[in-house]
Amino acid sequence: MGQKYRILIWLAAPVILIQLMSCKKFVEIPPPTSEVVTASVFDNDANATSAQTQIYSQMVNQSLSYDLCLQTGLLGDELTSYSADPILQEYYQDGMLSKDIILPWIYAYNYIYEANAVISGLANGNGITVATKQQLAGEAEFIRAFWHFYLTNLYGAVPLVTTTNYSVNGTLSRTPQAQVYQQLIADLKDAQSKLSPNYVDATDTTTTTDRIRPTKWAAAALLARVYLYKGSYDSAEQQASEVINNSNGLYSLCDSLNSVFLANNAEAIWQLPPSEPSSDPYVLDASFFILTSSPSSGDNNSATISTQLLSAFEPGDLRETHWIGLYTTNGMNYYYPFKYKVTNTTSPVEYYVVLRLAEQYLIRAEAYAQLGNTSAALADLNAIRVRAGLSSYAGATDKNSLLAAIFHERQVELFTEWGHRWLDLNRTDSIQSVMSIVTPLKGGGAWNSNKALYPIPLTELNADPNLKQNSGY
Fold it and tell me: 3-class DSSP state for residue 156?
């Protein structure tokens, strides 16, 4: 993971944000002197907006898109590793060690801290217009929910952090997932009420074509996912329908699969642009996955599409031909993720896709199937299949068969995107049946069900006596 296994926490202008030291728990760092927690940041719209949008810059520059899909792809059944890197081997052979696996815990809590600082600063600041205060508060709540979602689905029960109070945060114990979900839902509902229905620029009110700031539809999309994961299928269907049928007419499935990861395409609900200014203004997932030689033994360009994933595509599935690349050398075929294609450009062509419409169709299809609305579930499932060049689903339509078809569609539609496959294996209780076969094939020995959850980093356990480790570590 190249630049990503270095714990560097910087941040840069126009507002210097929180610095994080690898040797300390983020909640135990002395109160930062950075502007994000000083009143001066929240005395005008521009500074306050910079404090919030710098969180998105960090997510890009710290390569969270690539990290999550590489980590979970290696853990699960999406990727084959050729790396000799010890930590990547731990992921690949399902042998994670608490002393080594520190991401994404470290970064996620840093973003949550910063979001809390924005929420607190907006509440206490003067000189910020009402419209800007509302938009930024909604974005900060959205980010807090987004990263708590990933933390609880990767680690299980996790500390629920809603304050910047170091004395409180430094001794937090783990919060049961049900309570974390309660906070997620509360944050996202509040964000929905505050966020603009349109994409806005740095003024927080002027509409733009860039889809890089969260909107009320992004909050609805994440809320639909949260409801699906917790089994609230009526609510999941309602939120997904709000996005799919949004009154602004912002979203539609791209006709061409080659358009799905382009900047500002009609399917994108929330995207992040490559870091600018940059000498390499392209998505790092492309640079780190695309092969121009045999797979590396290093951190990057060392993973290929697994035989399990490759065999999951039906004949004629255009996603296999458009989203999987092939490099051949010495009679060997190496297949690699090819959703992002641009590695040499002077201006961004592709943006990181964080939330997109196809997932909402699959969320709604699953919710409909769980609710017994077979015809509606089939309609949403087939919208994704037909776009991929496949015929409509013609298999059995009992509940279990239909759900299996939807899970399969998620596997071949959402692969190597933000950990969807690994989270799906966990939430659907499929992980035991899948990994008991896959782990031995990867050289990891017998599958250990404790490895379904990440270990709490050892540095965090040492810093907070109230934290307890996951079973099996």
Answer: coil
DSSP letters for 387-418 = HTTPPPP-S--SHHHHHHHHHHHHHHHSTTST
What spatial distance separates the first Cα and last Cα of the chain, rounded to whole Å?
A: 23
Whether omega before 277 lies within 30 degrees of 0, making that bond cis, reads yes
β-bridge partners, 335: 326
Distances (CA, A) of 360 to 161, 220, 243, 357: 28, 10, 8, 5
Q: Quick one: tokens of 297?
A: 């033994």
Task: Give the strand pairing for 352-356 and 332-337.
Answer: unpaired
Buried b (16+ CB within 10 A) or exposed e, 185-220: bebbbbbbebbbeebbeeebeeeeeebbbbbbbbbb
Res 19 pLDDT > 80: no
Q: Specify the 3-state DSSP secondary structure of 74.
A: helix
Average pLDDT over residues 174-195: 98
Tracing tokens 């037909």 back to the chain, one arrives at 386
Average pLDDT rounded to a whole number, residues 312-324:
98
Q: Check if the beta carbon of residue 386 is closer than 8 Å to that of residue 300.
A: no
Query: DSSP labels for 3-24?
Result: GGSS------TTS------TTS
pTM of the model: 0.92
> For residue 360, what are its two tokens?
């909402």
Give the mean pLDDT of 101-119: 96
Task: Note the Cα 267 to chain centre separation in Å.
Answer: 17
Tell me how far CA of residue 99 lies from CA of 63, 68, 87, in angstroms.
21, 19, 10
What is the amino acid identity at position 201?
Answer: D
Q: Which amino acid is at 197?
A: P
Mapped onto helix, strand or coil, the DSSP state of residue 135 is helix
Q: What CA–CA distance (Å, rounded) separates 36 from 24?
A: 20
Residue 141 and residue 163: Cα distance in Å, rounded?
12
Residue 382: C-alpha distances to residues 38, 234, 324, 393 (Å): 52, 21, 22, 6
> How far apart (Å, rounded) are the C-alpha atoms in residues 419 and 441?
21
How many Cβ atoms are within 10 Å of 163's Cβ, its own excluded? 16
pLDDT value at position 30?
A: 32
3-state helix, strand, coil in the chain (%, to 5): 50, 5, 45
Rounded Cα gap, residues 470 and 473, in angstroms: 6
